Amino acid sequence: MKAIPITATVNGDPVEFLCTPDEPLLDVLRNRLGLTGAKEGCGTGDCGACSVTVNGRLVCSCLVLGAECEGAEIATIEGMADGETLHPLQRHFIEKAALQCGVCTPGILVASKALLAQNASPTDEEVRYWLAGNLCRCTGYDKIIEAVQSAAAEMRGEV
Amino acid sequence: MALDDKKTRFKYVGTTPNRPDGVDKVTGKAQYGADITAPGMLTAAILRSPHAHAKIVSIDASAALAMPGVRAVVTGADFLDHEDAFFADVSETCMAKGKALYDGHPVAAVAATTPAIAKAAVRAIKVEYAPLPHVTDVDEAMKPSAPIVLEGRALEHVPAGMSQNVTNTCEFGHGDVEAGFAKADLVLERSFKVSATHQGYIEPQACLASFAADGRADLWCCTQGQFFVRALCSQIVGMEASQLRVTPSEIGGGFGGKTTVFIEPVALMLSKKSGRPVKVVMTRDEVFKATGPTVHASVDCKIGMTKDGRITAGDMTLRYSGGAWPSGTIEMGAQAGFAAYDMPAVRTVGWTALTNRPKEISYRAPGAPQAVYAVEALIDEMCQKLNLDPVETRLKNAARAGTLSSYGVTFQEIGMVATLEAAKAHPHWSAPLGPNQGRGVAAGFWFNFGGNTCVSLNISTDGTVSVTEGNPDIGGSRAAISLMAAEELGVPYESVRTIVADTASLGYNDNTDGSRVTFAVGLATIKAAREAIKVMCQRAAAFWGIDAEAVEWIDGAAHPAGPNAGKFPPMSLAEIAAMSFQTGGPIAGHHEVNVDGAGVSFGVHICDVEVDPETGFTKVLRYTVAQDAGKAVHPQYVEGQMQGGAVQGIGWALNEEYIYGADGRLQNAGFLDYRIPVASDLPKIDTVILEIPNPGHPYGVRGVGETPIVPPLAAVTNAVSRAIGKRMYQVPMSPPRILTTIKG
Amino acid sequence: MVKVRLWGTLRQWTDGQAEVDVEGRTFKEVLDALAAAYPGLGPQIKRGVSLAVDGVIYRDAWFQPVDPGAEVVLMPFMKGG
Fold first, then answer.
1. What residues of C are in contact with residue B516 (Cβ under 8 Å)?
2. Does pTM top 0.95 for this prediction?
3. Is there a cis peptide before residue B326, judged by omega within 30 degrees of 0?
4. Domain B296-448+599-742: which topology?
5. What is the pLDDT of residues B317-339, one digit of tens each?
């Protein structure tokens, strides 16, 4: 299969890459661009560990083709912090012990950020349903929900 | 200071600082198994048997080898024959030799320049199979007429005349069981089935192997034990342990499932053949088909009880299958089943049989959930029949200090009564329930272990501390170990950095398993710190010109011990460290030990459910975990273990199971069809930590991680059974199974 | 003499006795004495056993002292996940 040249941005940086027509965006990010923050937990869109946003939309990058991303704005976990300053979600995840092994954490953070971008004051149930596509096997989710809510409160300026 | 001093007042232990691996994990920088690469790296793909059981007649890899970009192929013929059955079995789980024993059993592997070429090359390998009859159910496998999975593997104490699939049997207990049943007002006997489940770690197994031409090799992998990986791989590949350095990556979940090797020897063999670094990353489908799930079990349980709720006797027969190779897990289950109770008479008989399934690997408290489930569900049914309160009944029978346990050992101070009292006192226990709702309670037990442990602790000249330990961190152990080092040395938590070393940097450490790390590595860290303190006291004494015995360590500084020692201002760790080059050289402490004395732990869970009578769908409404955790070094992370373990148990109770078709093939090898709990399935998981100190640890630490998966199978079963008014005898309680029971 | 409690499976090698008396002052001496007095126990001891002494489970602790009056229980080699 002949490779396709693609021009896009990742976390605001311009990128150019070649990818085969059947190559998932996840493989492009990890193998061609060296961005290994998105993880492959299943390769079938069931676990959410590879969550990124493409043009602001939350996707499983294992289900998006690299070739679909011409001109796209891609955002990954690597772009979430501002230099040394963590995003409130990142900080609250650490402080609330919302991660153990941490392999699902990049996907859950990206997904949570996408939730708060469209709903600044979700209920616990809304958070639980929004994150239902992101599997975590370590925490039982409790502390993840708490961390999203306390980060949301801070982002609303309540703390 | 005596090395065996027990501490009961703490400055840092018991606080909840941020974990040292936190920032890397929230920014995507943390490197897991699949994130590691090497220049010139090849990628491997593995060919797996599509048959449950088949003789491998021939393998022709010539077409694959001829493909451009293919650099090496390995098959079972490349793997050594091992006299030692243990190593032979592990080797054969990595690559079949002569016979494929389950759907997904590796039969060949290819290393190529790209993943696409490797996958295409695997498809080009021609394997001729002669399919054999198969068996995937433990009860079927025990029948004399069952297809034989492996011959001649029965232990010497298995009675003659049974199917060759039966490889092990065990019996535990004390007292006259029949006499006990004769004293009972109610004797009930029930049969239970427990499906096999998978640990379900989100990170598939991954490794990178690099073999050098002079016979040295490096291996990077996600594992619960780099030293055990080295021991296994050096034997399987045939090299000296010192020539193989294994470096553990961050680990994306393990829960017992990463305590062995599946792909690492294959990667090493491919690297050796090709002369290039070789990376192997499993797909999720491969993880389900060919890494270790739990045993599946069939259990008969019989209990006698007086009408006021005193258990008079218990008798249980457990049949476990750990797949195509012998498994010792039955012994753990048979010992744990009745361990929470003071049993006047008890007998547990266990059997293990081979089936055409992947080899079982540990999963949190291996063997215990299956046995405890049967006991706890049956006690609940008896409470219903006798109109007894299930918590009061358990209290009446609870094991306590001095109780002769079901496995023959008399208990020391234990927390069974305290956890039951905590459950009884919790508002959850007395909250009202609505229609179609039910509340279940169940107890659980686990042993916890210590094991081989090495810690090296180094003091830097700026007064900061490095702790080098050898156990991959799966639940926050680096934070817990840093806390214990800070506590002992009297320096801030932030001054301590704990790292997990490769196999060349430290002596042997047992796997991160058995709830051992905070207990055993913590103990070794405390002792290493005490050794460094001894050195620092000597340095201060020499500086002051007094005897070392006249110096004591208080709150991070050396002090003259009393007025007779001399009048000197205290000298802090940083001050002593700063002059260390001039006072004798760098300051360090280390400790190497095979730790024993882990404390057993008990948990009591309360679960509320609502069952939809139309669909059989169960919603968990409320869940509370009370556990005897010993001293909670980092209480947030202790809660995390309790919540995470409980949710895995809830998944087992309601959804998770290995489903094999009549063709012996796994039907649900993916997260869509093997459904682990998601956030919207669950309520808040409330926790009650009971800090009953373990006398075997200087700070009273017990293990925490495994016990929480033991009670949920029965807690949820008891809730569902009470909600629908009929008893359930099988987990998982999928909606069709619940509907079948409701409709009778 | 130390009184060692055996689990049920092993009683076929000790003429049905649930507890046997052997000479031994340490973990290893007790196991060696057991294997010598009851050769049928040999394979299991070789595969691996634990020994609980007064309620504490020891694995591979050859020099662990075993007092004559102690409660000594032979157990399978214990493992975790």
1. 80
2. yes
3. no
4. Aldehyde Oxidoreductase; domain 4 (3.30.365)
5. 999 999 999 999 999 999 999 99
